[in-house]
Predict the structure.
Amino acid sequence: MLREYALLADGERGALVGPRGDIAWMCAPHWDSDAVFSALIGGSGTFAVTPLDQRHVWGGYYESGSLIWRSRWITGEGPIECREALAFPGEADRAVLLRRVLAADSPARVRVLLEPRGAFGSEGSHHIERHDGVWTGRTGALNWRLTGAAAATRADSSRGGGLLTLDLTVPPGGHHDLVLELSDRTLPGRPVRPDAAWDDTARGWARACPEPVDTIATTDAHHAVAVLRGLTSSSDGMVAAATMCLPERSGAGRNYDYRYAWIRDQCYAGIAAAGVGATGLLDSAVGFVSARLLQDGPDLKPAYTVTGGPVPGERTLDLPGYPGGTDRIGNWVNEQFQLDAFGEALQLLAAAGRADRLDRDGLRAVRAAVSAVEELWNRPEAGIWEIDDRRWTHSRLTCVAGLRAVAALPGAGRDAARCTSLADTVLTETERTGLHPEGHWQRAPEIPGVDAALLLPPVRGALPGSDPRTRATLRAVREELARDEYVYRFRHDRRPLGEAEGAFLLCGFMMALAEHQQGHTARALRYFERNRAACGPPGLFSEEYDITQRQLRGNLPQAFVHAMLLECAGRLGGPPPP
């Protein structure tokens, strides 16, 4: 079950660790590279550290403010821990996976298995050799090296290639290090020294993830900062999720590749970071989004690779897929226009301006985004949910919020009047076409239903909380889309909400912000607490949550959910916005 997987990430790539100490998913050397461990979606390849005692109970926890995970098993012989991390901060072209087996007051007996398989499992390892106790090999375009397993034995794999096996006993109070390096370049002459790598990793996380300020959920907010930082590369791009093709609904065909940087998601993360003093995340978001606006202007894409390149088109893989899903690589978002991305970018840049962290390129990016809204605001587009092209109300109101935010910045000068006038124009037309007869905002001129995403623009400043349209929309979402303090995006058809898809955790946190804006403190906290509990033991959130089965649905971890949790943790402790 997805709720049992922990994330290791170093900014350049990520890995999922399962409850049996198996690396079930990892792409290398980059986020959008082919997977070298792909059992999660029906591929092959493994790197497992598992207790030899088959009767054991699994658990684990993250070291505070980091993505250093401690797998923990209680066996009949005593407890065993395995400290796990990708060396942090990561190198762009070399993954370093650290695993340290620790014994308490009894021996720790584990079995280690290693079989790297490139190209989503289709390429076995070859040229496998052992020199001075260090194993090396190749799989596909990758070179790999394993230290700490000198006594391992090699056997031919049934799928072609080789499998290394080691039965390891760590004496009481001791530890044993395993280090796997992966690169599409020639590996350095000397293997990684584990003690130094662990020290550097712990210090790296401490520098990158200071504890957020003034939040109502300190531990969860700190963890959210770590997750978002782990998903953010040295080139400033933040992937939407570490995985691909995990289904939102069994057999529904909604299986997407989220290993790319969505403009909207990164804006959410930057805005949340600004509110809790996480300036590193804010600066990365501003840097990446500004660069894309200056690069593409009105042709801004909804998503890019983390280095700013184009997202490849969709294609399928010949793999069984995660149960209930199918495998698709790439994303059709590369063919879409999403107007709300410009509005979110303006909100992000305004947040940076209020924090005095907007440089000259950021100011140029503001003007580029405003010009794009002037040109494009009345065009049909795919919107936040990336479906058919319409004049989505949410996208227009998001632009209104962004324009008002930059107009209010000190020193806006003549741009303030330009932005305010444009915001008024967009709002007037949106009211004409997007207001339901009952007084709430509707999804689009042709679609009278309400959408939970419409809760956010007023929180961001498109309209006051006291505006009748704001209050009517909140009431409509509460009555039509909320169940047990979980919130669905919109009503697909006449089926019960939970039969069409899972509750959207993003929308649940939006609801908390909207209730807080109205001064409904108890309601806001109920939505916040309910949705922040919709995770597994590692505290990772997916996109959707099946409230009947209490299961995660979709890719993991979903960055924008962690971002919205972080924003809630910062905002809900203060007074409602004016």
